[in-house]
Design brief:
The protein has one domain: HUPs (Rossmann fold). Strands 3-2-1-4-5 form a five-stranded parallel sheet, sandwiched between helices. The protein has six helices and five strands; from the N terminus they run βαβαβαβαβαα. The protein is globular and about 45 Å long. By secondary structure, it is of the alpha/beta class. The structure holds 4'-phosphopantetheine. 4'-phosphopantetheine binds next to strand 1 and helix 4.
Length: 167
C-alpha cells in the first residue's frame, strides 16, 4: 500500500505532554495534512500517567484541531507508521545533546523502513530546555511548572499529588 504523503506520525512517551511538544505538534500540523500523535504505551515500568491518561490529556489539548489525531501504540514505531500509511515521523530537536540519540533512531528506523522519512523540527527558543523528565522532577520537588505545560497537565499533576501518587 502506498504511504499517504500528507500524514505524519509524532511519536513519544509524552509523560507528561509539555509546551515544547505542543509547539512541535502545531508546527507540524501546518506542514502536513494530518498529524497522528502516537503515545508509546510501555514507556517505563512506572509512568506518571497511564497511556490511556496520556492519550486523554493530549486529546483534550488538541480537541479543536481537526487534523490532529491522538492514538496509542506499542511495538516498533515503523510497524505502527506502516499500518497508518504515514510518510514521515516527526521528532523535535532541542539542542545538540538530542542529536546523537535522534540520529541513531532516525537511521535505525530508516534501516527498518527505507520509505519512511524522519523530519526534525525545532521548538520555539523558550521551550528548548524543557523535557518531561525535568517537569516531573521540578513539580515533585515543589517547583512551579506554570507556562511550561498545558493547563490540563498542570491540573492533572496537582490531582495526582493530592491523591498521593508519586511520579
Ligand atoms: O519521547 P521519547 O521517549 O523520546 O520517544 C521515544 C520513542 C517513543 C519515539 C521511541 O522510544 C520509539 O520509537 N519506541 C518504539 C519502539 C521502537 O520502534 N524502537 C526502535 C527505535 S529506533
Amino acid at each position: 500500500m502506498r504511504p499517504n504523503g500528507r500524514l505524519a506520525v509524532f511519536p513519544g512517551s509524552f509523560d507528561p505532554l509539555t509546551n515544547g511538544h505542543v509547539d512541535i505538534i502545531l508546527r507540524s500540523a501546518h506542514l502536513f495534512e494530518r498529524i497522528v500523535v502516537a503515545v508509546l504505551v510501555n514507556v517505563e515500568k512506572k509512568p506518571l500517567f497511564t497511556a490511556v491518561e496520556r492519550v486523554a490529556i493530549i486529546r483534550e489539548v488538541f480537541r479543536e484541531y481537526s487534523n490532529v489525531e491522538v492514538d496509542a501504540f506499542d511495538g516498533l514505531l515503523v510497524d505502527y507508521a506502516r499500518r497508518r500509511r504515514a510518510s514521515a515521523i516527526i521528532r523535535g530537536l532541542r539542542a545538540v545533546s538530542d542529536f546523537e540519540y535522534e540520529f541513531q533512531m532516525a537511521l535505525m528506523n530508516r534501516h527498518l523502513e527505507p520509505t519512511l522519512e524522519t523530519v526534525f523540527m525545532m521548538p520555539a527558543e523558550q521551550y528548548t530546555y524543557l523535557s518531561s523528565r525535568l517537569i516531573k522532577e521540578v513539580f515533585h520537588l515543589g517547583g512551579d511548572v506554570h507556562g511550561l505545560v498545558p493547563a490540563v497537565v498542570e491540573r492533572r499533576l496537582r490531582e495526582q499529588q493530592a491523591a498521593g501518587v508519586k511520579g
